[in-house]
Amino acid sequence: MHWALVGASTIAAEHMIRALRRHGEVDWVVSGDAVRGRDYAARHGIAQATTDLAEVLADPGVEAVYISTTNEKHRDQALATIAAGKHVICEKPLAMSVADAVGMVAAAKAPGLVFATNHHLRCSGSHRTVRRLVAEGRIGRVLSLRVHHAVFLPPHLQGWRIDNPGVGGGVIPDITVHDADCVRFLTGEDPVSVVAQAGVSGMGQGVEDSVMSVWTLPSGAMVSSHESFTHRFAGTGLEVHGTEGSIFARGVMTQAPVGEIALVTAKGTEAVPFPGDDLYAVAVDEFVAAVEGRGRPAADGVDGVKSLAVALAVREAAASGRRCDVDYGGL
């Protein structure tokens, strides 16, 4: 498969290029800055760089595009790519509004293109193991979940994420959207309503850098979620508590396959092993399989719409001080 990168991004450099090359070659990179694009291409062994997305989409050899630009660009770039008949992996959040994200999904569905959201955490062995434990009934009926994803955003990733609401900055579109996908993945439920409080705790300039929220699931189970850019030493984790036991997954909300899982029941505490697969490799493997007609991507466009819908409800609830229903745009 021949790929193009739209966005000369850090995430592509650190994670996605090697995953894409497991299944072919990266032929192009598109950057809004010509010098940056040329330097990026040279540094990563990419044959061609351009500032013109249309030039890339006119290349009949390009079969799929990975989009990792700033958030406000995702919609137009994805729609152009879909119109050119290319498959798409798009970074989260898919768009700045649920309606725009729904339109992206509809555009890809009509011609039968694979449209995936790069929700990497659901590709981790730890999250898939927690999901299996829940599905097997090892903790009985789920009563509540706790997601702790308060980290320190390193300086080289700060930039627009901490000071530019116009391009989708803030911890809610950056991390809460991931945690919404994780909860949906683990439980199979779509949150119904949320309450939230957000603020600036030392990094944000015009956008929130910390948020806490509580979500209600259709089953009645509740979710407590905490995201931040400013917690250097807090660690990450998720907990799932049920009528017959609890699952404690520590250090698992990361881009690396690390951490530990403990299952606690009346029988005691059991350490649960999990595979240490590369999250991004798994995502690309399943995307390519979907393109070849074997299954579906790890997270498809609908998953991207729904995680965005939860995140936007959290932002609205934090801004208004009211409980907000989650609007999934008809999906």
What features would you describe in this structure?
- It is a single chain.
- With 331 residues, this protein is α/β, with parallel strands linked by helices.
- The protein folds into two domains: 2-119 and 282-298, Rossmann fold, CATH 3.40.50.720; 121-277 and 308-325, Dihydrodipicolinate Reductase, domain 2 (2-Layer Sandwich).
- Helix content is 34%, strand content 24%.
- A nine-stranded mixed β-sheet has the order 14-13-12-11-7-10-9-8-15. Strands 3-2-1-4-5-6 form a six-stranded parallel β-sheet, with helices on both faces.
- The chain is globular and about 60 Å long.
Describe the protein's topology:
Blueprint lengths: L1 E5 L3 H11 L4 E6 L3 H11 L3 E3 L2 H5 L6 E4 L6 H10 L3 E4 L7 H12 L5 E3 L7 H11 L6 E9 L9 H4 L7 H17 L5 E7 L10 E7 L5 E7 L8 E6 L2 E6 L9 E6 L2 E5 L6 H13 L9 H20 L3 E2 L6
Parallel strand pairs: 1-2, 1-4, 2-3, 4-5, 5-6, 7-10
Antiparallel strand pairs: 7-11, 8-9, 8-15, 9-10, 11-12, 12-13, 13-14
